[in-house]
């Protein structure tokens, strides 16, 4: 596409006709992750200045959806799954299985391109971390987080998410 190679061109910079033509010409893949797991990873990476997970969550909630960082902004507001028909949605925690299928469908060699991932260990670790960090939050924070990520929880199958309990 003629403006495709421009650095950091956003889809919103094109007109509707160009957007439709581009989207038809690509295989669209969306990678999603449980929003609570995204918060944990962001906190552990030190992206917040808060000393505790609870105070970090309060910062996130206080920032609001529109002023939030991309690191914890709801996925629905970033990826527009209601406007863009994605060909594949790959969920974190099932990467090895889903990436293998995706690469096979794309006609690529599966074995050499998939890193060694142990999905069950990743799921177990995040389950344990979620239990620990969720217990730090007040009932009000839990309710507010569920509301903050309500559209992500409705759009994607995050079964077992602490935010949907």
Automatic annotation (TrEMBL):
Membrane topology: Single-pass type II membrane protein
Enzyme Commission number(s) from the entry: 2.8.2.-
Superkingdom, natural source: Eukaryota
Any one GO biological process: carbohydrate biosynthetic process
Keyword match Membrane: yes
Keywords of this entry: Carbohydrate metabolism, Glycoprotein, Golgi apparatus, Membrane, Signal-anchor, Transferase, Transmembrane, Transmembrane helix
Annotated compartments: Golgi apparatus membrane
InterPro entries for this protein: Carb_sulfotrans_8-10 (IPR018011), Sulfotransferase (IPR005331)
Primary subcellular site in the record, as a coarse category: Golgi
GO molecular function: sulfotransferase activity
Family: Belongs to the sulfotransferase 2 family.
Protein name stated in the entry: Carbohydrate sulfotransferase
Gene: Chst8_1
